[in-house]
Write a structure and sequence with these properties.
Homotetramer. GO terms for molecular function: 3-oxoacyl-[acyl-carrier-protein] reductase (NADPH) activity; NAD binding; quinone binding. It is an enzyme of class 1 (oxidoreductase). By secondary structure, this protein is of the alpha/beta class. It is 47% helix and 16% strand. Strands 3-2-1-4-5-6-7 form a seven-stranded parallel β-sheet, sandwiched between helices. α4 links the parallel β4 and β5. α4 runs parallel beside α6. It is globular, with a radius of gyration of 17 Å. It starts with 6 loop residues before the first strand and ends in a 6-residue tail after the last strand.
Length: 246
């Protein structure tokens, strides 16, 4: 088991990629702190982990709220004593063409996908610097590498995530902390499932493998990057996209 005894915080863990990552990490032996907006939404992920024989707590928190984020770290340290891995997975979309995008649409996506990642990483880094070890993993996107129609806000946030990932890798390496991101292609999750069939077909055709990815494809990447097998990897944006961006 590659994450045996490691303590991992996963944000946005109630469904999609976050849920799949929680399952994979539990199977690899990690002890989990699962975070989402509503505690009751985490109930089924929590049960799944416990049914697998894993250990987990659920924390209700909004990653855009600084006090909530402090609570995530406090509850995790109170339960497990330390924090080895953070997966900054929580994210939203709120699409509109440039000239139609409202300030609310811009702010909502920047708040969760950029500021939320900053909040969680900053508070986790304080604990990890003391420990002199840790792994921070961020959710980027193909959209953070090549843009997308109707996603000005999302592209800006994910581009920002790439920049923060590389900056933090440079800042935190001296403390034994690695920082990487994954840029998923189009993955079959509730975020993508709500899109029209026509758009999904178009997305599928962008992959040279001509298929969408599954949440497990991304979870496998996070597990590798979180593990000691990736001990010499930091500052990387790993594309897992079926060759969408080559
Ligand atoms: P998802 O199915 O929509 O799940 C996102 C989770 O994040 C939900 O449980 C959501 O809670 C939670 N969340 C949203 N805002 C939050 C906040 N402020 N604080 C705490 N939790 C919050 O998304 P996904 O498709 O699995 O995507 C996960 C990550 O991968 C995102 O960062 C996304 O941008 C990135 N990504 C996804 C794809 C894809 O094709 N699916 C591609 C590239 C990148 P609620 O249910 O309460 O809203």
């Amino acid at each position: 088991m590659r994450l045996n005894g490691k303590v991992a915080i996963i944000t946005g863990a109630s469904r999609g990629i976050g849920e799949a990552t929680a399952k994979k990490f539990a199977l690899e032996g990690a002890k989990l702190a699962l975070v989402d907006l509503k505690k009751e939404d985490l109930a089924h992920t929590l049960k799944m982990i416990r049914d697998l024989g894993g250990e987990s707590i659920a924390i209700e928190a909004d990653v855009t709220d600084r006090q909530n984020v402090e609570k995530i770290m406090e509850e995790t340290v109170a339960q497990y004593g330390h924090i080895d891995i953070v997966v900054n997975n929580a994210g939203i979309t709120n699409d509109a063409k440039l000239v139609k995008m409202t300030e609310q649409q811009w702010d909502s996506v920047i708040n969760v996908n950029l500021k939320g990642v900053f909040n969680v990483a900053q508070e986790a880094a304080k604990v990890m610097i003391e420990q002199k070890s840790g792994v921070i993993l961020n959710a980027s996107s193909v959209v953070g590498l090549y843009g997308n129609f109707g996603q000005t806000n999302y592209a800006a946030a994910k581009w920002g995530v790439n920049g923060m990932t590389k900056s933090w890798a440079k800042e935190l390496g001296r403390y034994g902390i690695r920082v990487n991101a994954i840029a998923p292609g189009f993955i079959s999750t509730p975020m993508v499932d709500k899109m029209p069939e026509k758009v999904k077909e178009m997305m599928k055709s962008k992959s040279v493998l001509n298929c969408m990815g599954e949440p497990e494809d991304i979870a496998n990447g996070y597990a590798f990057l979180a593990s000691d097998e990736a001990r010499y990897i930091t500052g990387t944006i790993l594309s897992i996209d079926g060759g969408t961006v080559i």
